[in-house]
Amino acid sequence: LREARIKKTKTVCTYCGVGCSFDVWTKDRKILKVEPNMEAPANQISTCVKGKFGWDFVNSNERIVEPLIRRGDAFYPATWDEALDYIAENLKRIKDENGPDAIAYISSSKTTNEENYLMQKLARSVMFTNNIDNCSRYCQAPATEALRRTMGLGGDTGSITDLSISDLVIIVGANPAEAHPVLSTRLRRAQKKHGQKLIVADLRKNIMAERADIFLRPRQGTDLVWLSGVTKYIIDQGRHDAEFIKNRVTGFEQYVASLEKYTLDYTSEVTGLSKEQLIATAEMIMNAKSVAVCWAMGVTQHLGGSDTSTAICNLLLVTGNAGRPGTGAYPLRGHNNVQGAGDFGCAPAFYPGYQASADKDVLAKYEQVWGTPLPTNPGLNNHQMVDAIHEGRLKAMYLIGEDMAVVDSNANYVQQAFEKLDFFIVQDVFFSKTASFANVILPASPSLEKEGTFTNTERRIQRLYQVLPPLGQSKPDWQIIQMVANRLGANWNYTSPKEIFEEACATTELFAGATYERLEGYKSLQWPVLPDGTDTPHLYLDEFALEGGKARLWPVDWTHPLTLPEEYDLELNNGRLLEHFHEGNLTARVPGINKKVPSSFVEVSPELARERGIVDGTLVRITSPYGRVKLRAVVTDRVHGKQIYIPQLSAKDDETVNMLTSSDHDTITFTPAYKEMRVKMEVL
Ligand code: SF4
């Protein structure tokens, strides 16, 4: 009997885009252990601290276990019927009074592909609006834009395993040792095993920088300049891959002309890197047989995030490092399913499989499949939604699994917007800062309590199986979305995520051959998946996904970083911690993890600490034009000069780094420029 209560279930980690799969051993609701699976292609190594120990939150007594309705300043338990009636009544009223575009929907890159598919279907087919987005807007949308510009498809060009065989890996503005730990272990092994070279470009001397052969520390917001300067130098030396460019790339002459100003002198002057560093970087690239570039928010969360991402792709194309194993572009996805949320249509401009929402043929297809007319108005992205609330155009929002009140930039402005909403539905596992602004809170089940699929950073679709039953009255998000849709007049009858997945794949060329059977257990598929089930570990082996099958060099120019008044004399940088997932809404509820890192802090350089009389533990107030935070200092040479670093962990209101960041954004994708801010600091 005792044995029968012990169960082993396969799931997929929800703490980063590496997408490690593992078995969870449970006895009733108790998690006994997490057992990594060495056959699972994405990990093959182990799990990191979050994957191994980060799951006790599922039994936290802080879980939301029943629907809650606000009355005055307090929330009261309600039945599902009461909550759904209340939602339907208010959404119908707001739609009737203000039109369908007065309501917006934000899906979650922590929920499954099936749930994302249903959320955009609800917005479009039931509520008649393209106002649907997800948090990839906050992170890798610029990388997706760059890949679509230059190569055609918005996914990593190869597989995580490619990073083990590359001659040289370049990491720009990313810290996989903390944000994608298993991937960083893979790189460390490749360094030891076959002498893989590593170049790291970052403001902060992070763990990867300590392991690098070349560490570049350019001035904040100047990555595009050194990338372009190094590319120009390679071309000037005649060491570009002329054969590859001739056969597989367009736009070379125009691109070369665009590089004219990026001489070594100019590049060195703007970036602060020495000419010797720039030449050594170029030499290492020229001498490598295969080069892969990984990048993350240190690149994308800038005014010119899309253009800097494009400069990375240009460098790869000029040197022939695309379309073969061991090479390519790897924007590292932060959330576990940030790739899948976009893949399955949670973006205003795209239906599932990146089919344009403005394309008449796409609309006609979905009108037939879904049996209803579909909206033609362009939708708002989540950044525009906040402005639209302030302007009175957007009256209601249905938001799933995102603590937008602390993770969006300029958090004060976002919170003020939420206060103005006529009606706000928040669906989450825990009561978050965002939930505190809601009219209705719906209790969602976390990944361990549901089935479905996730898509990791390398376009790999994997199944997760239900480890535990939903706690209390919480439900998997797909069931809740279906209940809301039906209460609003739909007639959906999905009985399992499998049925949703089949419908989604039947209408998208990208996933044509993906089925639950082909994803059984530890099997996985990397899109595009052909109708016969053949998947694609490497994109572009034969041709790129642009007109004529060729890649396209895309000239870009440098956008000067934000300028702020002189009194803001310090540069603010921010990012993830190894122990916590993002803002900490889940991991702060894991006692073991929370005990280790209970609160945020600010990293201060030794020289700045000396100047200001700061030691470890000194309490400081940091102020930007947008807000202020109060944090304890950690003195470390990871940061230098007048740069400071604050983790994204936002366990307490006055520690939330996004109280300091602005609403300025990448000009193409609206991704906030989180990494471009100047602040001042006073000792308390
Ligand atoms: Fe989870 Fe990422 Fe760690 Fe793998 S590397 S166990 S996916 S957090």
Q: Please, what is the CATH homologous superfamily of the largest domain?
A: Dimethylsulfoxide Reductase, domain 2
Radius of gyration: 24 Å
Instruction: Describe the strand arrangement of the main beta sheet, using strand numbers.
Output: 5-4-18-17-16-6-7
Structural class per helix/strand content?
A: alpha/beta
Count of separate DSSP helical elements = 24
CATH architect. name of the largest domain? 3-Layer(aba) Sandwich
Largest sheet: 7 strands, mixed
Residues in helix, %: 25-40%
Strands, total number: 28
Q: What do the pLDDT scores average to?
A: 95
Domain unit count: 4
| Oligomer type | single chain
From the 3D structure, determine the CATH topology of the largest domain: Dimethylsulfoxide Reductase, domain 2
Tell the overall outline: globular
- Percentage of residues in DSSP E strands: 15-25%
Bound molecules: iron/sulfur cluster
Cofactor: [4Fe-4S] cluster; Mo-bis(molybdopterin guanine dinucleotide); [2Fe-2S] cluster
Enzyme class: oxidoreductase
EC number: 1.17.1.9
GO molecular function, one term: NADH dehydrogenase activity
What does this structure look like?
The protein is an alpha/beta fold and 684 residues long. The chain has 4 domains: 3-59, N-terminal domain of TfIIb, CATH 2.20.25; 99-139 and 335-419 and 468-506, Rossmann fold, CATH 3.40.50.740; 141-333, Dimethylsulfoxide Reductase, domain 2 (3-Layer(aba) Sandwich); 570-661, Barwin-like endoglucanases, CATH 2.40.40.20. Helix content is 32%, strand content 19%. It is built from 24 helices and 28 strands. Strands 5-4-18-17-16-6-7 form a 7-stranded mixed beta sheet, with helices on both faces. A 6-stranded mixed beta sheet has the order 24-26-25-28-23-27. Strand 19 and strand 20 (460-464) form a beta hairpin. Helix 3 crosses helix 22 (497-506) and helix 18 packs across helix 20. The longest helix has 19 residues, at 80-98. It is globular and about 70 Å long. The protein starts with 5 loop residues before the first strand and ends with a strand. The mean pLDDT is 95. Bound molecules: iron/sulfur cluster. The site of iron/sulfur cluster has 14 residues, from helix 1 and helix 7.
